[in-house]
Task: structure prediction
Amino acid sequence: MANAKQKAEAHHDHHGHGEEHFRQKHLMLDPLPRGRMNEMVMESMLEKPTWKFWVVAGFLSFIVVYFLFYKWGVLIANGQGEAGVMRPDYWGIFLVNTVFWIGISHAGTFISAILRVFRAEFRRPFTRAAELMTTFGLVQAGFSIFMHLGRVWLAYWLMPYPNQRMLWPNLHSPLTWDLLAITTYLLSSTMYLFLPLIPDMAMARDRSTGWRKTFYKTLALGFRGTEGEWAHLRNAMNIFAFAIIPVMFSVHTIVSWDFAAAMRPGWHSTIFGPYFIVGALHSGMGAAVLVLAVIRGTMKHMDYFIRAEHFDAIGKLMLIISMAWAYFFFNDYMVQWYGGDMWTKIMLHYHEYGPLNWMWFGMLFCNVVLPWAILWNPKWRSTPWLVGFVGIAINIGMWFERYIIVPISVTINRMPFTWRQYEPGIEVPMGIGTVALFILLYMIASKLIPLIPVWEVQEGQMAHELKKFGRETVVSVSELE
Amino acid sequence: MTTSSELNMPEIAMAEKEAGKWGMVIDQDICTGCQACVAACAMENNIAFVGEEDSGYGRAMHWIRIERFWEGEYPEVKMTNQQPMMCQQCGSAPCEPVCPAFATVHSMAESLNLQVYNRCVGTRYCANNCPYQVRAFNWRDYKRPEPLPNQLNPDVTVRRVGVMEKCTFCIQRIFKAQDQAKAEGREVMDGEFTTACAQACPASAIVFGRVDDPQSLVSQLKERSGGKTHLKELGTLPNVTYFNGG
Amino acid sequence: MTETESKVVDLLAVFSDLGPASDAVEHLRSLGVHDDCMNIISGVPVTEAMLGRPQQWTNVPRIAMGGALLGLGAGMFLAFVTPFLYPYPIQVGSQYPVPGPPTVVVLFELTMLGMLISTFVGVFLDSFFPNYRPMKYVPEISDGKIAILVECPHVEENKITDALKKLGAESVKPAEAQHL
Result:
């Protein structure tokens, strides 16, 4: 008799999920009073840094100062000869890093704009964490491209403004489009980071003292939350969410045109635009999931806001994007291979059998094999450290991809006399410097800016409820806007 | 044969009309690969002295280079003709549109590709997009060992670090000859001057002159059968014609 | 009419829930308080429909459109005018001074740049940001409370206070402008 009852209960648990089950699983169904959430976010931010934090921050600062700024000084003083670039590899790791960081920056916009437009509710707790990646990633991309310039002190010549030199930038050049597009993207993504931050700044202002009070008060701009303020903000965020999507697409398309517009075997490909966009999302999502795993593991109360369901949802997206990347890669490869152009053939052969073919195979392993092998399983892709690991692997794979596209592919050109393999020089420490600066900026931001958009989480929790259809309980969302 | 202008393709027609004021003919069959042109070019154009280490790493700075190739597998190796390679002064140059600073532009008066050193910011896109890989970048501020500083050509700018440069068809000589001719109230005569490489070539494998004048030596040499331009399929309309195995 | 009678006071009523707040809005209206004399302050975006309030007027989309046009104008200047501002014509490759496809890219980027910057500026203009003057506010609002700011004649202060309290307001007091 008791046995039968147990069985029945087990049966019940399995089929009709109890409310408790949903609450544990979904942040949106597990509401806390707003005051409590504010407290948690403030505590996570104000928590006294441990000695580990200071050690890591000190180490990163050293790397930034020495590897990024000191080495950059050396590079400027001595010229690009300090780097590994030469004929025919006029472009090297600096441009690899530029493309890489712009790629990382795409995740922020993807999460906070595309998912917002399509009302993917799981985005709510981490839109800000992703947007911060966009802004900080673009800073690194900007640094990388300035490192690459032979005469960086004249970089302002590329800006369109009336001047006594009677110079206007050449609008025929993909690099000029790049400058316009990256400027647009950096400005608009920073503004898009700031707009939803205003209410959270007001929240932080209301519960802080001392210099922080002044800081938050200044950035909250006097926001109270009147109907008018919300209406203007909502309208603006709506415009941004829609308008920033084509801007994001244009940025990486134009980055791809830097290569595709050039008359080179392997580069002159019409599919490069979408291929680069998907690649950018691939590395961006990988980085986003890694950031989330780290935030969740190191910051107080973050396990309430960032849960297994979020890793599961991002894991699914990563899997889809990985498939899309494989599709575009194969398209690009297939058509180039079949085209039969002699130089392209030699270049493809150099990818697969050349001295750096481990990179080519490593790229396929990290970008396709590993994500597919791990992310198909709901349990595995809900495990933060495992998805974080896949995120790292994807980023390594995507870095390899850009390395293959830039210095490996330019080794092969139509003048065989000039073929020569690239050996990186000062680019390596400087590239590590950009990584350190990115992490350092993120660490500083995590102590200054509420990483969780509390009002967005509360808005989501208001909209979610459990509904019963017969015996089945399901999650339902109402559209509040 | 239908020409592009008959098909009403304005961009190509424009470039074809543009193509060719100054041109060069290179006879690979008589080139001995002695490198005299390379040395003469470096002297004439104040080209930096790169040194052994950087040269060995593909940073040799020459506006003209002699490419050597061979056929067959070792030990059955057969040398083929030497191939002097310099800026082809394309009529439709891929290097030009990609520069964000207008540092490399087309001279419509002389039909040459100009490189404006003081406009260059060093993106190196032009060099990447040059199918002939003939552009040279100032990777560092190279020191000229004594006594090289004493023989700098006053007619040519000295370039510094971070600037792209390339063969100009000795534009300083072109202007000198044109000024001279103008002062004397006449046209520049064929053979009145030539580029440093052509002047130095002991075998006269390089001939320079007006290709738009059918009477000039270079035009007549160009009209012989068997002349080729490199990578013609790209439509860059180069102004250097090569003869090989003729 | 004496001076004290015509004096206007601001009351700040704090509610912890949407329902009572929306009832209060309706009741205030029946007491003769015009919609323009009320303002809702909240920590989450509460839509006008939820509280039965008239739609808020916002200039942000119009400012954005204006900015987009300005950006397009700037793009047209770059694309169509600057190639002819040189003292001599510049030709690159065999492309025309105003090339077709690149012009599209330039126009697009500058239009978007103009639109997004002006959207951002529009929020500042419409909301009078940044504004560091003292304002009528209580910090509980960012803890999720909903506050109704009522502007009423001095004589009706008690009547309205009682009514709001009866409808479930946690506190009703004359609002004092303070530094946030």
Notes: Residues 51-477 of chain A form one domain. Confidence is low (pLDDT under 50) at residues 10-15 of chain A. The longest helix of chain A spans residues 227-260. Chain A has one domain: 51-477.
